[in-house]
Amino acid sequence: MNHANMTNKGPETGAFFQRDREWHPQAFTPWYKTSVTRSPQRALLSMDNTLSEITGPTFGHNILGEHDNDLLINFAKPGETAIGPRIIVYGRVLDERGMPVPNVLVEFWQANAGGRYRHKKEGYVAALDPNFGGCGRTITDENGFYNFRTIQPGPYPWPNGVNDWRPAHIHFSVFGHGFAQRLITQMYFEGDPMIDLCPIVKTINDPEAIRGLTAALDMQATIPMDSRAYKFDIVLRGRRSTLFENRLEGN
Amino acid sequence: MVQPLNRLKESASQTAGPYVHIGLTPNFCEIGGVYPEDLGTKMVNDKTKGERITVIGRVIDGTGTPLKDALIEIWQADADGLHNSPSETRGTADPNFVGWGRSPGNMDTGEFVFETIKPGRVPFKDGRLMAPHISFWIVARGINIGLNTRMYFGDEEKANEEDPILARIEHRVRVPTLIAPRDGNTYRFDIHLQGEKETVFFDS
Q1: Cα-flanking dihedrals φ and ψ of residue B104, to 5°?
Q2: Handedness of CA B88, B136, B139, A25 (dihedral sign)
Q3: Which entry of A47, A64, A77, B145 is 20 to 30 Å from B32 by CA?
């Protein structure tokens, strides 16, 4: 038996598990108003993965700069740092089989400690932090681990309802080993009372799925007198074994 | 009672939001000095094998308005139909072609542009060749889970006719939503999120 075939470490060639579309948000969620004209209305065309979905791009550690995973300083003037509660975010990228997903690109972006994004279309009155850009990236190690340092973002109001606010969150973009694993999601913070009030969070029906997006405060990973730590694991679609798929009948 | 399967659930998707460009194409939205360049902006170099083409299009909402805050990624085979991926077992793809591109779209018009090469044909599971195609993945504010679709080539009529994926589209009137017409070396592929021309999106 080809052990590499089952560990996610060697190249795997199987198709991915069917996506649970009831676990994910539906496209049309009218309480999140922008979805109304941006949601496909017709049934999706379901098909098993072909090579075009089973394969996907890879990124080498050579693309990474030294401070790509340190949002405290990657936009700051020399000797200065971003303002806000210093935190470390760490976790693993796993697949639905519980296997680590090594060597995949993880990108993240967020508002500053006041809840303000560095973007020309952003109109919130909270101040920009001249030392905070709000983007970072890293690549998972051989065991699927990633980590970065940042400030805890603030909650912010947004034009949806008259008085809707987003909970503090960090956006994540994750690659797997196949293009069919491509995922964008958001990380929320343990204990934030804004989570249950958020129309975007409410696009998810299952409370268990929301818990899966809520990072746990981890005092054991905290650096005393320096930074608190939050643990956030990300799960990508699992891959089928190809052990019996490419075998002709009668062999 | 039975043994538990011990599977995890995929992390639920959440919208990329209005500021996806901060994270994925920061130089494009004036956050300079963090990364030397935005990933996925340059797909070909002088040594890349294959016919140079340009793919242009827009993502259009249900009112006919182009999105100006979307992010589009594409993934495709090289000129010989091989993917630059460890999961490619049929051979080694062109080392001068990654096959992946990313575009934030034009800030004023929403138009995305990919300078790439025309891909070769890739086999379907049963060995039949699929028509040349480019996989698309679209995220934006208001899109709760990334949308997957494919662009096929308007000048590949015969290959398109025998493509096993296009053949599965029940309502034949919708097939043209996946086929980009050719004008010179440019293919235009507009993606309609809703309406009569709604693009066929995939659950794959």
Answers
A1: -85, -5
A2: negative
A3: B145
Query: What global pTM score does this model have?
Result: 0.96
- CA pair distance A234, B9, nearest whole angstrom: 10
Give dist(CA A18, CA B28) in Å, integer.
35
Please list every residue in chain A whose beta carbon sits closer than 8 Å to the beta carbon of residue B20. 109, 171, 173, 184
- For residue B6 the two structure tokens come to 């011990």
Q: Domain A65-236, what architecture?
A: Sandwich (2.60)
3-state SS assignment for residue A34: helix
Q: What residue of A is the nearest CA neighbor of B199? A: A40
Which residues of chain B neighbour A44 with C-beta distances below 8 Å? 201-203
**Token couple for A130:** 């001249």
| pLDDT tens readout for residues B16-68 | 999 999 999 999 999 999 999 999 999 999 999 999 999 999 999 999 999 99
